[in-house]
Amino acid sequence: MKRFLALFFGCCLSLSASSDPVVNAYEDLAQAARQVALCREEALNPHHLSTSIEEPACGQLYAWGEFLLWRYHQDGLHFAVTGVETANRGKLYALDGDWESGFRVGVGYHFPCSYWDLSLSWLYFTMDDSQLATPSPGLTLWATRSLPSGPDDLLAASAQWHGRINSIALELAVPFYTRTCFALRPTVGVRGDWITQSFDIFYSGIGAPTTTFITNKTHMWGIGPEGGVRGDWYATNCFSFFGEGSFAYLFGRLQQHQVTNVVGSAAASNNVDNDFLDTTPVFNFKAGVEYSGWTINRFYIDLSLAWENMIWVDVARDFQYVDATLEGNLVQNDYNLTTSGVTFRARIGF
Question: What is the distance of C-alpha 45 from the center of its chain?
């Protein structure tokens, strides 16, 4: 009987203690602290991610190469138009680029016992396009870039454009593993670009022996800070979807030389040089898929396929006169340069 009473009173005391709100609060706090510690340990030790991401933390040199299949577009590359002063529908002739190939190569190093890495890359891309325009039946062909004293009705018009892009970037980055399947990789660095362009136009007039030759050459170079961020969502340990964006603000120099010669009964010429310091904003966006964690003889290999878009703001310009006096009526136009297309990347870690 005494033993039964002791057990009964012991149960009552334990129940009264567990119902104490203060005790319950302490237990909730302890549980929350254990959960926070577990999440922190998971973030600092991302074993769920691919081997290629974990291994470089002990120090690793890596290199990569990218094949670029891009198409360019620049505003202001028009040179002729049909359908002026007629009810028939005409056409604007302008160079709009074609698919061109280029490359980007780089090297980098993951610092020992950390996720910081430093990389250096070089991008090279060339652009070429040409077009011939002749008047369609029932329409007149007009020039859009000639001097006012140039030919009115055209027998033919042709244009050729050539451009070359070089870009070097030095970047410092570190990833943050915010979830078991998501990572952010902010970057900061310095970028330098130099872009050369040449736009040539030829007009042939009808009847009178009047022709016009136009040459417009532009050279831009600049250097400045760049920053961006990349996000990866890991569907599996090796397969991920990613998106990244960056912005650079380049300070440099823009040089331009434009020559227009009109040959014929109303001969005239235009020879203009423009050389000044300016800033050029550059935007870059990329989205795609990546396969990482492939190992061959202690080499780590990552493969990715993405769509990339890059925009240089006000990187080209031209001059046009609006009447035949060529005095006090010079108009300047600024244009953006855009490239977009597929980027295939292969990276190898040593």
Answer: 32
**By C-alpha distance, which of 274, 273, 263, 269 is closest to 326?**
269
CATH number of the domain within which 147 lies: 2.40.128
Q: Which domain holds residue 85?
A: 46-349
Q: Is residue 25 part of a domain?
A: no
pLDDT at residue 79, rounded to an integer: 92
User: What's the residue count for the chain?
Assistant: 350
pTM for this entry: 0.78
What percent helix, strand, coil does the chain show, rounded to 5? 15, 65, 20
Closest CA to 221 of 198, 197, 257, 241: 197
CB within 8 Å of 346: residues ≥ 6 apart: 64, 65, 66, 301, 302, 303
- Number of structural domains the chain divides into: 1
The pLDDT value recorded for residue 226 is: 97
Across 157-171, b (16+ Cβ under 10 Å) vs e yields bbbbbebebebebeb
Token pair for 296: 């061959």
- Tell me how far apart the alpha carbons of residues 312 and 164 are, in angstroms, rounded to a whole number: 13
Indicate if the alpha-carbon torsion angle 314, 223, 248, 161 is positive or negative.
positive
Q: Phi then psi for 145, rounded to 5 degrees?
A: -125, -5
pLDDT digits (tens, 9 = 90+) for 161-205: 999 999 999 999 988 876 668 889 999 999 999 999 999 999 998
Q: Within a 10 A sphere around the Cβ of 347, how many other Cβ atoms?
A: 19
In a domain, 32, yes or no: no
